[in-house]
Specification:
Low-confidence stretches: none
Strand content: under 5%
Distance between the termini: 18 Å
Largest sheet: none
Number of strands: 0
Number of domains: 1
Structural class: mainly alpha
Order of helices and strands: HHHH
Amino acid sequence: MDSQSSPPVKTFIPAALILALIGWGGLYALLNFTIPTVGPRWLFFFLGVLALTGTSLPIVAFLNQRFPSTPPVSSGVIVREALWIGIYFPTLAWLQLGRVLTPALIMLLAIGFLAIEILLRLRERSQWKPQ
């Protein structure tokens, strides 16, 4: 693998499968075999992060390979972007439990996560790396 392109999608498949299987399998077991007390509720959010991160990991890797940037993204950036997606949707579920989720809040959270990622990518791009 050369340093001039982003990592291929196939390198993320094993991690994505493990995360998705643990997440979705755990959510299935949690929803079918437990009652909604405090412990299973927090487990729901944790398993939701795992499931959605594992599901979005190959998609994010493909999008970063399809639309390359300068400098090319590293594996850590791809995992971080997939983790943002994994955190976003359980956060929406948590807000819905308190009945405070509104369309404006959905958009503000998405814009906030996107702004954080843009600023992190901007910082990475601005780092001086002599060749």
